[in-house]
Structures are given as C-alpha cells and as structure tokens.
Design brief:
Layout: H1 9-29, H2 34-51, H3 53-80, H4 98-114, H5 118-146, H6 152-157, H7 163-177
Helix pairs in contact: 1-2, 1-7, 2-3, 2-4, 3-4, 3-5, 4-5, 4-7, 5-7
Amino acid sequence: MALSGMPGWVPVLWVVIWSVSLSAVDVRTRRLPTPMVRWFGGGMIVLAVVEGAPTLVRALLGAGVLTGMLRVAGTLGAGSAGGPQRGSHRRSGSGVGGGDVRLGVPLGAFVGLTAAAPSDAVIGALLVAGLAAILSLGQVAVRALVADRGSRRSAWREPLAFGPWLCLAALVVGTGLGG
C-alpha cells in the first residue's frame, strides 16, 4: 500500500467492516442504505485527508472514476430493461442501481487511497468495475445452471445484489495496488 502516515491495515479494516455490513443488507434486501454508504464514504475521506493532499487527490480520482463507470453501467442497464426509468428507482434485473453507484464513492476512494500514483487510481477503479461485473455474471450463470428447466428463465431475470461483488473487487484491487 502507498500509505505513509498510518498503518496500511487501517483502511483495509474500515473497508472490510463496512463491506460485510453493506453486503449482508444488500443480499437480504437488494438495497444499499444511503446512510450506511455515507458513513462508509465519510470515513474514507477522513482517512485520505489524514494522509495528505496527494493521497486525497488519488482517493477523489478513484472515487470519481468508479462512480462514473457505475453510473454509465446503470444508465445502460436501465435503457436495456425497457425504456427510461424515473428517478432512482429501477426495475428488477435492470442492472446497477443508485445504491451501487453511491457505493462506488467509498470503494473508489479506497482504491485511490491505496494507489501509488494517480494513474494507478484510475486503472484500479476500472479494474474494480470490470472484476465486479465478471463476478456478478458468474453468479447469474451459476444460478441458471443449478436451476431446474422451468425456472431457468426466471434465474436470469432475478435481481442480483451487486454490492458484495463491488466490495470484493475493491478489496482485491485495493490491497494489490500498492505493491
């Protein structure tokens, strides 16, 4: 990790605690509570500020890139689900939701916080988005394979909890960036 002022385990522990909590809620309800995501993000910003201006810039860069990628994915998913969506509500299975986009802020900040350079923050955020997409597609494929013939079609349409895959991808990428 590219941290200089604090032990490297501090941001990892913060991300693990919030990732487990948010993932449990997302799996159970298919929603990520905004207040929890805000507390998670606030802590990441505090950790970045404690590290200094260069780290804060990398954290903001990572947060912006990951959130932007998720926003684009959410827009594309809403369009493919049958037309424009109103507000932040989405139809079942329509892709990345508003909670996932908000979750991109603290997770992208974590990737940026642990990056050695601004370019690593950008590349790391892109890797998180890609890895999370691959993991969630794998979940859909496994669901379809284990479903019986009559429910196979519904297995593809059932909404997924994307938050746990985002959290896992951010932890994998964030802990591997700093060398």
